[in-house]
Amino acid sequence: MAFRKFLPLFDRVLVERFTAETVTKGGIMLPEKSQGKVLQATVVAVGPGTVTKKGDMQPVGVKVGEKVLLPEYGGTKIVLEDKDYFLFRDGDILGKYIE
Q1: Are 51 and 80 in contact (CB under 8 A)?
Q2: For labelling, which of 30, 37, 42, 77 has a CA lying 20 to 30 Å from the CA of 11?
Q3: In a structure prediction context, what are the per-residue pLDDT tens digits for the chain, which is 99 residues long?
């Protein structure tokens, strides 16, 4: 797997966005322009965390496999083995879904 070869540094989180819905519940096909930006993603890799001013390690707030809510803008797009991933700071992630 591509993300096993990539380890984010510090408080960075590598996520894979969910795919946008292309068909409505009624069966109507949606063009790409009318599809909203998908703000949900799955965490695929996390960095070790950041070092505080006292020298303690502050771990990242999410774990691999969790589903998170992303901001509408931001993140760095990364292509690994022809798949799009996004790199966010831990503080930029808005929340996580609890199942």
Answers
A1: no
A2: 37
A3: 445 577 888 889 998 887 766 666 677 666 665 556 778 899 998 888 888 888 888 888 898 899 999 888 888 888 888 888 889 998 888 888 887
Residue 71 phi/psi, 5-degree rounding, is: -70, 160
What residue type is assigned to position 31 of the chain?
P
Question: Could you give the number of structural domains in the chain?
Answer: 1
Strands 83-89 and 76-80: antiparallel
Supply the CATH number for residue 35's domain: 2.30.33.40
Tokens of 88: 């966010």
The region, left, alpha or beta by phi > 0 then psi within -120 to 50, assigned to residue 82 is left
Q: Collapsing DSSP states into helix, strand and coil, what is residue 25?
A: coil
Range of the domain at 64: 12-96
State the amino acid at position 90 in one-letter form: D
38: in domain: yes
The dihedral built from the CA positions of residue 94, 44, 6 and 56, taken in this order, carries a sign that is positive
